[in-house]
Design goal:
With 392 residues, the chain is α/β, with parallel strands linked by helices. It folds into two domains: 137 residues, Aspartate Aminotransferase, domain 1, CATH 3.90.1150; 239 residues, Aspartate Aminotransferase, domain 2 (3-Layer(aba) Sandwich), CATH 3.40.640. The chain has twelve helices and twelve strands. α6 links the parallel β5 and β6. The longest helix is centred in the C-terminal third of the chain and has 39 residues.
Length: 392
């Protein structure tokens, strides 16, 4: 297919999102005239502190939390690490519980943190998932022990969009005295987030997933929860995260989160319609295509599609040359030669896993863009398959 000059189509919103104009406008003063250290006691520092405190209050209100329960971090991955490592190590120091539970399809930020705990002598249980990426409630309940310190599970999977019944799981964990953390990075702005309704003790977010800036995240820590800090230094963030706060980024996080929540219902309905139209179109026009996790409760904007007989990186590059930005899975694992751990966990056949592309829609996507992708995709897939056959 000959590349034509057309406006590029961004269908990789699960990887990251560009900063909204309103968010950038809120941040700009804190790079310049108001860009001071919020720990300083002079007037300039107090202005920065006021902006930081205001952002903390706004985020807490949006989550149904208290301001003192919000801890700002440098990313979603850092927030997840602080939750997982912080809780487990705090329990170990008190010679209490040394068992941690997580899921097979978690983000690498959580899985690698759990690997570190295993090396430190913790007992780790990795829960299996079914073909839709769901965890069986009975399997979850049977994994809990009296010595379980923490359960850490994603609210929404970043590759499949699969949703877990976090409130139900958290209630079971609490019955056994365990704390519960949920990685809500992909869920923010897409589905309701209330820490009381979710019953979680810790919840992590990342601003760049909902049209905020990169390099800033946050961790909700329920009052009374003890964490061991990861970063030593000053007493910033209630003593849980040393280092001068990124005031501009934090203001951007708060602004982006409020905007996402205000638009959530209407935007989620719009995105679900786009995703459904896209999936129906793909299945109707491309033989051998299959939508992963189609039978599970899912995020409204993510479509993971397996194309039999296709090499995902090759298809990704061909789409990019035609002006379409997508990914072959998690952006954090880009460049890996093997199919993602998520696809392996759901039992995806090797041929399907190697041909899986994630399409994720957002504010930059409309019906016209979806229809444009549907118009070009069958021919591109056929060409990639034919080339693979010749080379094979």
């Amino acid at each position: 297919m000959k590349a034509t000059a057309r406006k590029r189509i961004y269908a990789d919103h699960a990887a990251t999102t560009p900063v909204r104009d309103e968010v950038l406008a809120a941040m700009l003063p804190h790079f310049g005239a108001n860009g001071f250290n919020p720990s300083s006691i002079h007037a300039e520092g107090r202005r920065a502190r006021a902006a930081l405190d205001d952002a903390r209050v706004r985020i807490a209100r949006a989550l149904g939390a208290k301001p003192r329960e919000i801890v700002f971090t440098g990313s979603g991955s850092e927030a997840i690490n602080l939750a997982v490592l912080g809780v487990a190590r705090a329990c170990a120091r008190k010679q209490e519980r040394r068992h941690v539970i997580t899921g097979a399809t978690e983000h690498y930020a959580g899985l690698h943190a759990v690997d570190m705990l295993r090396e430190e002598g913790f007992d780790v249980t990795i829960l299996p998932v079914d073909a839709n990426g769901e965890i069986d409630p009975a399997t979850f309940a049977s994994a809990l022990r009296d010595e379980t310190a923490l359960v850490s599970l994603m609210l929404a999977n970043n590759e499949l969009g699969t949703l877990h019944p976090i409130g139900e799981f958290a209630a079971l964990a609490h019955e056994r005295g365990a704390l519960f953390h949920t990685d809500a990075v992909q869920a923010a702005g897409r589905i309701p987030l209330d820490v009381c309704e979710l019953r979680v003790d810790l919840l992590s977010l990342s601003a760049h997933k909902f049209f905020g800036p990169k390099g800033v995240g946050m961790l909700y820590v329920r009052s009374g929860t003890t964490l061991a800090p990861l970063v030593a230094g000053g007493g910033q963030e209630h003593g849980l995260r040393a280092g001068t706060e990124n005031v501009a980024g934090i203001v951007g996080l708060a602004t982006a989160f409020e905007l996402a929540l205000a638009e959530r219902v209407a935007e989620s309905e719009r995105l679900r319609a786009l995703r459904d139209r896209f999936e129906v179109g793909v299945l109707a026009t491309i033989p051998g295509a299959r939508v992963n996790a189609q039978g599970a409760p899912r995020l409204p904007h993510v479509a993971s599609v397996a194309f039999e007989g296709v090499d995902a990186p090759t298809l990704l590059i061909r789409l990019d040359l035609e002006g379409v930005a997508v990914s072959a899975g998690s952006a954090c694992a880009a460049g890996a030669s093997e199919p993602s751990h998520v696809l392996r966990a759901i039992g995806s056949p090797e041929s399907a896993a190697r041909g899986t592309i994630r399409f994720s829609f957002g504010r930059l996507t409309g019906m016209l863009e979806v229809d444009d992708v549907l118009a070009m995709l069958p021919e591109i897939v056929t060409e990639v398959r034919d080339e693979a056959t010749v080379l094979g």
